């Protein structure tokens, strides 16, 4: 169902379980409440504040690796921060007009994303891969971390991981210290295919 963009965003933000589980914002500007996402469509989650050439380059490389066009995903709620308001969501969406489709969700954690979109390859950076397998991001509970990864594995999601510069060194999937039982869920993107030493944080502070 196609809706007025701001009306649809307000419904996602405010209607809770009575509202849409996700919105599909098309590159041409149309928004569909729970628009159809083909099974196996790769998703590139992020805050995209701002969206920059590194994001676009990574999406292109991942699409070539996976043989499928990549859609972006923006969670309107965050584990550590207040929810985005409708105006801010609309501002971030405007960056993608003519670039690519964006899924808006209320799923800040990957286990929640996996429940919405089973069988999905997620395109992530090294730093996100680290957070996925570190107990401190699960209330310091190794058991909770393993339970989440087990659920994601059962949902048949996987992760395509790009390297990132951290503390003066380019870190790749090999630096993420994955638990061996879950390592097959992750695939690294070679530095020869992708490296973009730029971040949204640096662009905002610059």
Characterize this entry briefly.
This protein is of the alpha/beta class and 206 residues long. It is built from seven helices and eleven strands.
SSE map:
Layout: E1 2-3, H1 5-14, E2 22-25, E3 31-33, E4 43-45, H2 53-66, E5 71-75, H3 86-94, E6 102-105, H4 110-116, E7 121-125, H5 126-132, H6 142-154, E8 158-162, E9 164-166, E10 169-171, E11 186-188, H7 200-205
Parallel strand pairs: 4-5, 5-6, 7-8, 8-11
Antiparallel strand pairs: 1-3, 2-3, 2-6, 9-10
Helix pairs in contact: 1-3, 4-6
Task: Tell me what you see in this structure.
- It is a single chain.
- The protein has 206 residues and is an alpha/beta fold.
- 32% of the residues lie in helices and 19% in strands.
- Strand 9 (164-166) and strand 10 (169-171) form a beta hairpin.
- Helix 1 crosses helix 3 (86-94) and helix 4 (110-116) runs parallel beside helix 6 (142-154).
Amount of beta strand: 15-25%
| Percentage of residues in helical conformation | 25-40%
Order of helices and strands: EHEEEHEHEHEHHEEEEH
Number of helices: 7
The low-confidence runs, each spanning 5 or more residues with pLDDT under 50, are none
The biggest sheet amounts to: 6 strands, mixed
Oligomer: single chain
- Cα shape: globular
Number of strands: 11
First-last Cα distance? 40 Å
**Which structural class best describes the helix and strand composition?**
alpha/beta
Which radius of gyration do the C-alpha atoms yield?
17 Å
Order of strands, main sheet, comes to 1-3-2-6-5-4
Mean pLDDT: 93
């Amino acid at each position: 169902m196609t809706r007025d963009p701001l009306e649809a965003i307000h419904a996602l933000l405010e209607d809770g379980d009575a509202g849409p589980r996700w919105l599909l914002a098309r590159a041409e500007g149309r928004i569909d409440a729970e628009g159809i996402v083909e099974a196996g469509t790769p998703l590139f989650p992020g805050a995209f504040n701002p969206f920059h050439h590194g994001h676009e380059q990574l999406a292109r490389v991942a699409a070539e690796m996976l043989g499928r066009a990549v859609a972006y995903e923006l969670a309107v709620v965050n584990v550590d921060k207040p929810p985005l308001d409708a105006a801010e969501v609309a501002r971030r969406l405007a960056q993608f007009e003519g670039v690519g489709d964006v899924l808006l969700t209320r799923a800040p954690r990957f286990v929640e994303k996996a429940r919405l979109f089973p069988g999905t390859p997620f395109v992530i950076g090294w730093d996100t891969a680290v957070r996925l397998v570190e107990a401190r991001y699960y209330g310091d509970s190794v058991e909770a971390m393993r339970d989440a990864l087990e659920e994601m594995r059962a949902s048949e999601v996987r992760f395509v991981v790009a390297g990132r510069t951290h503390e003066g060194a380019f870190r790749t999937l090999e630096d993420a210290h994955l638990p061996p039982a879950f390592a097959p869920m992750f695939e690294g993107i070679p530095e020869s295919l992708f490296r973009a030493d730029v971040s949204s944080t640096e662009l905002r502070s610059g």
